[in-house]
Amino acid sequence: MSRVLWTVWVLGAVTNLSKEEASDQAASLSCDPTGVCDGRSRSLNSMPSGLTAAVRSLDLSNNEITYLGNGDLRGCVNLEALNLGSNGINTIEEDSFFSLRRLEHLDLSYNLLSNLSSSWFRPLSSLKFLNLLGNLYKSLGETPLFSQLMNLRILKVGNIYSFTELQEKDFAGLTFLEELEIDASNLQRYEPKTLKSIQNISHLALRMKQPVFLLEIFADLSSSLKHLELRDTHLNTFRFSKASISETNTLITKWTFRKVKITDGSFSEVVKLLNYVSGVLEVEFEDCTLDGLGDFNIADMDKIKNIGGIETLTVRRLYIPYFYSFYDMSSIYSLTEDVKRVTVESSKVFLVPCSLSQHLKSLEYLDLSDNLMVEEYLGNSACEHAWPLLQTLTLRQNRLKSLEKTGETLLTLKNLMNLDISKNNFVSMPETCQWPEKLKYLNLSNTRINSVTRCIPWTLEILDISNNVLESFSLVLPQLKELYISRNKLKTLPDASFLPMLRVMRISRNTISTFSKAQLDSFHTLKALEAGGNNFLCSCEFLSFTQGQQALAQILTDWPENYLCDSPFYVRGQRVRDTRLPVSECHRAALVSAVCSVLFLLIVLTGVLCHRFHGLWYLKMMWAWLQAKRKPRKAPAGDVCYDAFVSYSERDSYWVENLMVQELEHFNPPFKLCLHKRDFVPGKWIIDNIIDSIEKSHKTIFVLSENFVKSEWCKYELDFSHFRLFDENNDAAILILLEPIEKKAIPQQERFCKLRKIMNTKTYLEWPTDETQQEGFWLNLRTAIRS
Q1: Which of 421, 542, 593, 683 has the largest count of CB atoms under 10 Å?
Q2: Which cysteine residues pair off into disulfide bonds (predicted)?
Q3: pLDDT tens digits along 543-600
Q4: Which residues contact 673 (CB under 8 A, 6 or more apart)?
Q5: What confidence tier does 208 reach under pLDDT thresholds 50, 70, 90?
Q6: Nearest residue to 457 via CA among 477, 471, 473, 472
Q7: Does any domain span residue 439?
Q8: Is there a cis peptide before residue 568, judged by omega within 30 degrees of 0?
Q9: What is the mean pLDDT of residues 151-168?
Q10: Of 198, 217, 248, at which residue does a domain stop?
């Protein structure tokens, strides 16, 4: 019983583990809403489960999948692209692709498939791309694999080691291919007419180490192929034989040699082949090695008048191990007379012999980029009668240093219209230069020039001086139609009056901060302007112009993506089209006017309120109070020099000066009174005089009358006395009522509250009109002063 339980537990654990593994594998796929699923490099060892009809593209390359079963892709009925490359797949069941009727792209490259089955591909009626490179199969099977793939356009088969034979039935059923790549590096058997069954091939890339079957393959393809590319082939044993080729009129127009090794002898054989067949217009050598000394078979070369009508010759990165021992190539000069376009890039060319240049009588285009040309040897190459029809010359990235010498050297090229001398190290530009008179296009980009002069020919229609260190451009070029001046240090657009015919200008990635509508309008013929990537100052004027012109996008080709604000700092990085500045930035004058208006209204309102509510008086009173507060609360006894300070209205001065002064100061003993007319210090602020006089007096006498109520200075004296009366808790104030004053006659404003308060709390002396009572008045006054 325990054994049964143990078995059940083990089975349950295995089932759960399988479910968890399937769940983990499904989770390892990342799919977007359109059904494109990416499972590359996830260390998957089996096909993910749970794939549904929602999957349209599935990439499982670079994993460890070894097996593809019938049900793994059954639910993927809408799958259009499947990449299973670079796994370890060694088995695919017969009906694995049965439900993939919409599949257009299938990649099974670089797996471990040793046998291919036609049943895999039978349901794939929509397939356009099939890659079977890098597997272990020796042949393409016993039955035709691709006969049902009527829509197939790109096919890649073969491998570098085990693929050894091509059979006549291999490509049966295929009528048209845009691209066919065959890795037949170790090809040992080729059945005649194997490739002849394909009626039309645009491009065949054939990788084979030895050229044993090259002529047979060429013969089968001569009437169906347009572009033949030969890769990784050692042509040292290649020998041309007329017997192998029955058709001399071929459809092949281009032949590419990529990573091919050629000897002096095999070069002559290739020339014989190209001479024998007609139709080849373009020959290309890329990353090839010429393992020889240029010792071509002169006897054979003399029999060849041209190379089958070849018009275009391209050589890139040609390696010649014994370059400095190379022979004179005069034996092949005659082969070049009909060539119209020649490109020799990155091949350490430092000289084109004058005699070879003179033989290139039909040459219209010459590209010698990334070589070792200098002015001295260029002069030998562009000798008299050299390249008589040459229109375009490219000398990009050579060793040229002098614009003046370069221009003089090329004066022999009477038909030269386009010159590219970019990526040379010119640095400076002379004031004047000589150039071929028909020159229309000049490329001086990446030459480190820091200024432009009249050295640049005025006949130009296209000028490229981008990626230099120019700070200004002020040349008059009346015929210029296109100007490329990006990646410099220009701060403004060029003057339009210097370029009246300009149609296209690219001035991106400079240090331009702004441009205006007037500047753009001044270019009357301008159709396209690329000015993005500059340090734009997003001012109100610039934003108003750029955001207000709906038609700006028709001229600015890179608008709005490349137009970003550089300043002000708070909008840096924002697109110019989307930037909004504060109102205070763009309407400063209006804002200042509004603020000034508001301030003026506030000042007027404040003045009105101050006048209405006596605000000025309160301010004066506050200042006086502060001044009083700074004084000591009680003056020292030695500082008291008056018996009384008399506060009175100027209109009551007669009573004070002729009656009071006479009665008090001429009494025995006399009283010393402080009167403002007599005792105030001249030149001293009146407030300070009032404060000092009150503090230096034993008493303060207020002569109250209606005139007193109306006097501002009397009010100050009353207030300061009030401070002293209440702050020091003394009885310093003496009130004399010179004439009856009703309390209701005293104004109700707050500034008269002290007078009302004193009259309510203090006993006052009333001046009698009866002369018999006046003596008693003076007696009481003297008594009050002495108290």
Answers
A1: 421
A2: 31-37, 354-383, 433-455
A3: 888 887 777 888 999 998 999 999 888 899 999 988 888 877 777 766 777 788 888 8
A4: 642, 643, 644, 645, 646, 660, 661, 664, 665, 701
A5: very high
A6: 477
A7: no
A8: yes
A9: 95
A10: 198
pLDDT score for 72: 93
Helix (H, G, I), strand (E, B) or coil at 271: helix
Name the strands in the sheet holding 733-737, side by side, starting at the edge strand that comes first in the sequence.
Answer: 673-674, 642-647, 697-704, 733-737, 764-766
Q: Given the structure tokens 């990537």, which residue do they identify?
A: 533
Residue 89 clears pLDDT 80, i.e. is over it: yes
DSSP tag of 564: B
Average pLDDT, integer, range 166-177: 92
For range 747-757, the mean pLDDT: 56
Question: Could you tell me whether strands 189-190 and 81-83 are parallel, antiparallel, or unpaired per DSSP bridges?
Answer: unpaired
pLDDT of residue 18 exceeding 50, the answer is: no
Least confident of 227-236, 366-375, 434-443, 630-639: 630-639
Tally of residues, the chain: 787
Extract the tokens encoding 362.
């039909």
297 occurs within a structural domain: no
Residue 349 domain flag: no
DSSP string covering 133-193, please? TT-S-SSS-SS-SSTT-TT--EEEEE-SSS--EE-TTTTTT--EEEEEEEE-TT--EE-TT
> Which CATH number belongs to the domain containing residue 752 in this structure?
3.40.50.10140
Model confidence at 745: pLDDT above 60: no
Domain termination site, one of 176, 198, 220:
198
CB–CB of 500/481 below 8 Å?
no
Element (H, E) at 20: helix 2-27
Q: Is residue 536 part of a domain?
A: no
Cβ count within 10 A of residue 418: 17
Compute the radius of gyration of the chain from its Cα atoms: 54
Long-range CB contact pairs, 501-510, < 8 A, 24+: 501/525, 502/526, 503/527, 503/528, 504/528, 504/529, 505/529, 505/530, 505/531, 506/466, 506/530, 507/483, 507/531, 507/534, 508/532, 508/533, 508/534, 508/558, 508/562, 509/533, 509/534, 510/485, 510/486, 510/534
- Residue 455 — φ and ψ, nearest 5°? -60, -30
What single letter denotes the amino acid at residue 191?
A: E
Q: Give CA–CA dist 413/438, Å, rounded.
A: 9
Q: Is-cis flag, bond preceding 560, omega within 30?
A: yes
Q: Which CATH number fits the domain that encloses residue 84?
A: 3.80.10.10
The amino acid present at 367, given as its one-letter code, is D
Torsion of CA 582, 586, 592, 593, to 10 degrees: -120
* Per-residue pLDDT, 228: 94
Contact, 283 vs 262, CB < 8 A? Answer: no
Q: Is 607 helix (H, G, I), strand (E, B) or coil?
A: helix
CA 308 – CA 272 distance, rounded (Å): 9
Range of the domain at 95: 30-198
Q: Total structural domains in the chain?
A: 2
Q: pLDDT band at 782, cuts 50/70/90?
A: confident
4 pLDDT exceeds 50?
no
Q: How far apart are CA 645 and CA 714, in angstroms?
A: 12
User: pLDDT tens digits, residue range 243-253?
Assistant: 666 666 778 89
Phi-psi region of 240 (alpha: psi -120 to 50; beta: other; left: phi over 0): beta
pLDDT bracket for residue 634 (50, 70, 90): low
- CA-closest candidate to residue 508, choices 486, 523, 527, 491: 486
In our burial notation (b when 16+ CB lie closer than 10 A, e otherwise), range 328-367 reads eeebbbebbebbbbbbbbebebbebbbebbebbebbbbbb
What count of other Cβ atoms lies within 10 Å of the Cβ of residue 397? 20
List own/partner pairs for 726-734 with CB under 8 A and 24 or more apart.
727/633, 728/633, 728/634, 731/787, 732/697, 732/698, 732/699, 732/700, 733/699, 733/700, 733/702, 733/758, 733/762, 734/644, 734/699, 734/700, 734/701, 734/702, 734/764, 734/765, 734/781, 734/784, 734/785
pTM metric for this prediction: 0.72
